[in-house]
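Job type: complex structure
Entries:
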Amino acid sequence: MSTLTHQGFTLWLTGMSGAGKSTISDALMERFRSAGAKVELLDGDIVRTNLSQGLGFSREDRDTNIRRIGFVSELLSRNGIIVVVAAISPYRAAREEVRARVTNFVEVHVDCPIEVLAKRDVKGLYKRALAGEVANFTGISDPYEAPLNPEVLVRTDLETLDESVGKVWSELTRKGLISPND
Amino acid sequence: MSTLTHQGFTLWLTGMSGAGKSTISDALMERFRSAGAKVELLDGDIVRTNLSQGLGFSREDRDTNIRRIGFVSELLSRNGIIVVVAAISPYRAAREEVRARVTNFVEVHVDCPIEVLAKRDVKGLYKRALAGEVANFTGISDPYEAPLNPEVLVRTDLETLDESVGKVWSELTRKGLISPND
């Protein structure tokens, strides 16, 4: 019943807390599922519970967490499954390591200026981090290394959700990873 | 080009060290691959490296390791992929937890009397364990809880490799999880 032909690939959404990774990945999941695609979501929380309980937020622990997500993404992608990953994944080297390993890796930088994030601050985390109350907070007390050349750059302060999702969809189409069944 | 139609399922080989889990799973992998099936092997060592580095051999750590293998098996199986797991997985409760979670879970008890294992002792581990030199050694200084009602029981001291593989293959066919394309 699929209205979409697709290959296996991993759509990797990286970006700071609150930038919109989960919102965009949820919208993408909905669109993939409606089209009958085989797709799995690996978001940061699911993975911390199921694969990485006990790991913290040091660079080493974050890298280990990313490698595990990469391992699972590889197993799924090479078998024709679409994987959507939503994870801060702040270190460039760890993302590049996953890219080298995973069949059809598509990096999406979910970007938003920190001033806007601090203003939105849905969970009140930025206020606390800016007050120095949160250790290892990406973008404030911990680095965020933005992708230098991501396949897709979305700016959630300047675009609507539909526009961001549309940019990702276009890139997947352009690469031949998805194609509609007429 | 597949000569085999198959569903997604997880073939879970449990048994003591040296009983023959890897030998049987390698033979099964070869047979699945020759038939063009989509299949992944998760063996104890691969998983310890990629998902469970840092975990030890306490009951808690072993259970965590098994849950992680179960999580990955579930993601693959529900997308139509065959997963072959070769892991000692000594605790019944942990295996039952995975069974409850995974689409089409097929448990294979790779059984061999401990006297025979101690006599084979390819890696010299039983000798050391029986001398009290290895902590947490399954079947000697740590428990092995045999499955009460596995889908397949193979006895590697009494059967040839081909016979054991054949028993697994028959059970998969009987359950309708695999069927040859004529």
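Summary: Strands of chain A lie at 4-6, 9-14, 39-43, 82-86, 105-111, 152-155, 178-180. The radius of gyration of chain A is 16 Å.
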